[in-house]
Amino acid sequence: MLKKTSLDILNPENLKIDDRKIEDLILFTYQLSKKINFFDLKNRKEGTWDSLIELDDTFLIAEIIKLDLLSYDAQRLNFIKKFDDFSSQEEKEKIFKELTNKGYVCRILTF
Question: Where do the DSSP E strands lie in 4-72?
Fold first, then answer.
């Protein structure tokens, strides 16, 4: 029994040095790049590395992966329910303004 426990402890699958996901590491790299300066050939501070990194779609994809879409969807459904439950035009306009102020409506299509 003790021998099996010792072997389990030594198994690399049971030991996680860093349990972050790849998207966490990507976002960490982006946050770190905001703090690291780069310098021109005359050794003058030219900016930080984040301006170069944000050109890569990998960082945008990592941010999208980390979004809690279920909470946004629950809020959206709550707004729709509130909108449907009210019958007066003024109340519906109030709910719609609240919805647009929160950024849930990016564009209104008119047909």
Answer: 37-39, 45-48
